[in-house]
Predict the structure.
Amino acid sequence: MATSAAPETRPAKVWWSNATFFVGVHIAAAIGIYLYPWYSVPRRTLWLTLVLWQASSLGITVGYHRLYSHRAFRARLGVRILIACLGSSALQGSIKWWCLRHRLHHRFTDDPVHDPYAATRGLLWSHMGWIFFKPRYERMNLVDSDDLEHDPVVRLQHKYYVPIAGFFGLALPSIIGAAWGDPIGAYIWAGLLARILAWHCTFCVNSLAHWDGLQPYSDENTSKSNFLLALLTCGEGNHNFHHAFPHDFRSGPCLLDWDPSKWVILLLHSLGYASGLRRARDEDVHAALEHMSKHENEHVRGHVHGFEPGYHTIPEGSVARGEDEEAADVWTGKVWTLGQAMQYARAGKGVGRCAIIIDGFVVDATGYLGEHPGGAAIIRKYSIRADPGENQKEGAVLSESEEVWKEASWAFHGGLNQHTWAAKRRMRELRVAKLSDD
Ligand SMILES: [Zn+2]
Ligand SMILES: [Zn+2]
């Protein structure tokens, strides 16, 4: 059983440069708006404020979030460059900086130590408190970043982030405003104020979307679905769906969900600038909905005791097991020895099959590698043909004596990722045999 005791949080250094800049922009915008109120600003400057606020928000939601953090689709070079510029203009850090923290958030949602903006640390912390500190994220090295390192746009934007962000976020609004003789007004409104709007709307996804709303897909963490948030964040409102199916390019499965980010991705796709749009399987979405409605009924009948949504610590070496896993252990399929499992793994085409051992079952993840929200590399590390300590051996044909592998149960059940009910269900579908005790 999982224990519910939360680990202690450790003190982190104050991030003075970030804190000073963040507070300074708020003060400068307040003074600027006081001296230059909306009724004295040219209408074109107000329109520019709205357009640049939404453009930077889309850079974050379509680019930083769905494209780069979750690999929900692929985009051509021109789109990636545009996204890097728009995302930079939101002044929320480089793509690499942002994505790595966001991947940690999904892996360890609500964990007060490993989730950078854990909702379990309070509304203010999850909204903006976390950006005032500079903690050392001990599990950052577990997050897959190969895809980010291999993208030249990401590398370049990370290297020259400060001048790029300064130009697109603060200088460009003034340059555009100068076209109608209002560079100062454009700086205050479309520069400073639009940045603040983009900041707080994005931050609401970490705070409001983990605080109030509905949980139709999963109640294993604090993520909620909230329509107000969808309006404020270019469609990121169905956060409960997003945490259950993070690789989906849509924020929600319904056609009528308010989701301008999804519409932009569909437009890019129809124009040939985006491809490989990933979406959750309908059967998985329906199964999650059904599971939740059953779960809620059980709550009403008082049959479920002691369940606390939120963070659960999984001690290393132990495995959290729920009723679903135990029911699935009534196995009527094949039973293999370890030798037979290794033979199965070797028998695949090319470098063999990607077979991993979870809960005493052989799970064939070969066809799932491209679908895995956390990337293929992490699964390959646990493949019974790969040495988890030596990545350079991945893909190599190993001799029998070299076949070192690591049982993946701890990693799967919270050690490296707090997988949801939907993810566990998908994993069970991929089981090919049970391991015999000998
Ligand atoms: Zn979240
Ligand atoms: Zn996300």
Q: What stands out?
A: The CA atoms of residues 298 and 304 lie 6 Å apart. The chain has two domains: 13-275, 323-435. The chain has 18 helices and eight strands.
